[in-house]
Design goal:
The protein is 45% helix and 20% strand. By secondary structure, the protein is α+β, with helices and mostly antiparallel strands. The chain folds into 3 domains: 95-126 and 321-451, no CATH class; 128-223 and 313-318, Pdz3 Domain (Roll), CATH 2.30.42; 237-304, PDZ domain (Pdz3 Domain). A hairpin with a 2-residue loop joins strand 12 (293-297) and strand 13 (300-304).
Length: 451
């Protein structure tokens, strides 16, 4: 059932992005007066089609789902001999260079507009996310040296307002890529009083750190509730040791327990090992010995005391007015596009691993995961993939929209179109580059799947 759910979620993502991209080409082609012969979702053999409209455009579903195309009346692909003058005037290569640029650019632009539309709707609706409250900061980290200790509420990064945890992470990852310092405006409590600014240097974050938990390396993590015990199982080590629901675990073996997550990690790491727990029960402080039971999990032996420990962070719902949401969505789309280009640049110069390139298997996996989390996560994922698709299509690689835009830009500069011979060579080279990238992406997907 999970596999079916993932496949359906992936089909919706892929279908939406293909249709929107190709509709961009289609609408602008029609607006520029170019005759469209076929609009296909999918590549290869046509499985189903229907002709619609005054031009009898063929709307088709094709066999290979990874892509789509808009086939226009084009003398390079279709014999136009014998066509009436009114149809010849609508042939693609007879259009001015700026019309051709508009038609080609419309596909990626449609992907960016889709992302802006989705983000705008989400920002107006409201996004429930953890509040940007910091967990206890480990010593000898950049955040600790900057003066952060934990419990602070971050309200801005370099002057940009922060309302939810993803805002904080997004601002910091952009600064880290550019090796800029982060000026965090924080307040010591959630009331927002007596705010102050701390400067966290990010020059210690390498490109490799960006592939993992770079916030953890800085010493920044999301605050979690105290280690308060929930429901206890009757036959569990916690109840046998005398622990009760509502007890607050202050320390284990003399070491302070930061929160519920820290307690869970301690217990899991101590199968069969007696733990001395300092407990707050009402006005009393007790010390009880608990020995976690050993249990096999994913091929490892972990400890378990059979008690519920709430770890959900404090949540807030952030929403914006329609105008603010549109501005924020546009900025997010722009920032995501720039970040994608920066990351690609770091891959090209060897600062970042090519393992970061993902293919259809990883996209399908994330589509299934976000769909199971909820509509907001799923729609956000579609928006981000739409941005990535728009950026990738604008790369100056022949066979992609960016390659065609490069041809037409050269035509604007030189006053004459690219020769057919050069175009053919470029197309073959571009196809080779594209196939190599696809092989890298699929290889990375298979490695992730096996690991």
């Amino acid at each position: 059932m999970t596999l079916l759910h993932t496949i359906l979620a992936f089909i919706v993502v892929l279908g939406t992005l293909i249709v929107v991209h190709e509709l961009g080409h289609y609408w602008v082609a029609r607006w520029c007066g170019v005759k469209v012969l076929r609009f296909s979702v999918g590549m290869g053999k046509v499985l189903w089609s229907r002709r619609i409209g005054p031009d009898r455009t063929e709307w088709a579903l094709s066999a290979l789902p990874f892509g789509g195309y808009v086939k226009m009346l084009d003398a390079r692909e279709t014999d136009v001999a014998g066509l009436p003058p009114e149809d010849l005037a609508r042939e693609f290569t007879r259009q001015g260079v700026w019309k051709r640029i508009a038609i080609v650019a419309a596909g990626p632009l449609a992907n960016f507009l889709l992302a802006i539309g989705i983000f705008t709707g989400l920002y107006i609706h409201g996004i429930p996310e953890p509040a940007p409250v910091l967990r206890a900061v480990p010593a000898e980290t950049a955040a600790y040296e900057a003066g952060l200790r934990g419990g602070e509420l971050v309200t801005a990064v370099n002057g940009e307002p922060v309302r939810i945890w993803s805002d904080l992470r997004w601002q910091l990852i952009q600064l880290a890529v550019g090796h800029e310092a982060a000026e965090l405006q924080v307040s010591p409590g959630q009331a927002g009083n007596a705010s102050y600014t701390v400067r966290v240097p990010l020059d210690g974050i390498s490109a490799q750190d960006l592939e993992g938990d770079f916030l953890g390396k800085l010493g920044l993590d999301l605050a979690r509730p105290k280690a308060v015990l929930g429901k206890l199982m009757a036959d569990g080590p916690a109840m046998q040791a005398g622990l009760r629901e509502g007890d607050v675990i202050l320390a284990v073996d003399g070491a302070p327990v930061v929160d519920g997550v820290a307690l869970i990690e301690l217990v899991r790491a101590s199968p069969g090992k007696p733990l001395r727990m300092q407990v707050q029960r009402g006005q009393q402080q007790l010390e009880l010995a608990v020995t976690p039971a050993a249990r096999q999990h994913d091929g490892k032996t972990i400890g378990q005391i059979k008690v519920e420990i709430p770890v959900a962070p404090q949540m807030v719902t952030a929403s914006w007015s329609p105008l603010q949401a549109l501005g924020r969505a546009t900025q997010r789309t722009w920032d995501s596009s720039v970040l994608t280009l920066k990351m690609l640049g770091k891959m090209l110069i060897g600062e970042l691993s090519w393992k970061n390139i993902s293919g259809p298997i990883t996209i399908a996996d994330y589509a299934g995961q976000t769909a199971r989390i909820g509509a907001i996560s799923y729609l956000s994922f579609i928006a981000l993939i739409s941005i990535s698709l728009g950026v990738m299509n604008l790369l100056p690689i022949p066979v992609l929209d960016g390659g065609h835009l490069l041809y037409y830009s050269l035509e604007v500069l030189t006053g004459r179109p690219l020769s057919e011979r050069v175009g053919e060579i470029a197309q073959r080279a571009g196809m080779g580059i594209l196939m190599a990238l696809m092989m890298v992406a699929v290889f990375n997907d298979l490695v992730r799947l096996m690991s």
